[in-house]
Design a protein that fits this description.
9 helices; Tetracycline Repressor, domain 2; Arc Repressor Mutant, subunit A; mainly alpha
């Protein structure tokens, strides 16, 4: 990826390009979104776009970064308080509320990008791996803190528990998006919470 612009004007132009690309890709997908469409939406010239991005793949990686920030920001401050059963349940409730607000349209922006890019763009795939690990890391840290307080059994593996939870979230979001019904996400998150609580220390 090209280095970040050094001026406010340059940063604003780059952000406008990435925002326009993210919006179009979110609605149409990566393959169905052409550079000419992005240029028109961002109101920039081709030379401006290539000043900030070497090619469409480079721009797609910037979209991955932007969508990752948006996904995580939408879940704050819950992600910072996953060190209790109440905090985890509140996070799950927020995930459900976010999808209800979107009328179950769109699913997970990061997951949608992964479905298109992971098999065809190695650099983007690695960026997506980092995005999911960053997201998952909030739950890992929360579970580790619970383990330190003897609220989670010593044999529990926070990494694997967080990974299983993320798989439930992604599967639930995909089915909710497909069925236009929040029920699959509720079921997936309920199953994830039940699985996590298997490792709760009895009080």
């Amino acid at each position: 990826m090209r280095p970040e612009p050094q001026t406010d004007r340059g940063r604003a132009t780059r952000e406008r390009i990435v925002a326009s690309a993210a919006d179009l890709i979110g609605r149409r997908g990566v393959r169905a979104t052409g550079l000419d469409q992005i240029l028109a939406a961002a109101r920039v010239s081709k030379s401006q776009l290539y000043h900030y991005f070497s090619d469409k793949e480079d721009l797609a990686r910037a979209v991955v970064a932007r969508q990752t920030e948006r996904v995580l920001a939408a879940q704050m401050p819950n992600l910072q308080h996953l060190d209790s059963w109440e905090g985890i349940a509140a996070w799950f409730n927020r995930l459900v509320a976010l999808q209800e607000r979107r009328q179950c349209i769109g699913g997970c922006p990061i997951g949608s990008l992964a479905s298109e890019l992971a098999d065809h763009d190695e650099a983007a795939r690695l960026d997506l791996v980092a995005s999911f690990e960053r997201w998952q890391g909030y739950l890992v840290r929360g579970l580790e803190q619970m383990q330190e307080r003897d609220e989670l059994t010593a044999d529990a593996d926070p990494q694997n528990l967080a990974l299983a939870t993320m798989a439930s979230i992604q599967g639930g979001l995909l089915l909710t998006r497909t069925q236009r019904d929040i029920h699959p996400l509720r079921v997936a998150l309920g199953a994830a919470l039940t699985h996590l609580r298997i490792f709760a220390v009895a009080s």
